[in-house]
Design brief:
- By secondary structure, this protein is mostly helical.
- The chain is built from 2 helices and no strands.
- The longest helix is centred in the middle third of the chain and has 36 residues.
- The chain is flat and about 60 Å long.
């Protein structure tokens, strides 16, 4: 039973430390005025655009690779439909 007690104590300690850190972060964040500058907004939009573009390129490349692999291995469904 010592192991369970020790494990629960560690989980409780970790949870308490995390909760205190989150509370401090929220308190500090609320004390700073929330007025982002125009340059900051522009950077944010640019980052989102770049991230979206990279995600689209990556998904297209992945789909092309999967299709190419399917054609090379010959994983074409049979026209008869019978299992051999």
């Amino acid at each position: 039973m010592k192991i369970l007690t020790r494990r629960n104590a560690m989980l409780g300690w970790g949870t308490w430390k995390a909760a205190k850190g989150i509370a401090k972060y929220h308190k500090a964040k609320s004390s700073v005025p929330n007025t982002p500058s125009a340059a900051r907004k522009k950077k944010s939009k640019r980052r989102k655009l770049v991230a979206g573009t990279l995600a689209a390129i990556g998904s297209i490349a992945l789909l092309k690779r999967m299709r190419k692999h399917k054609h090379e291995t010959g994983d074409m469904p049979s026209s008869t439909g019978s299992a051999q």
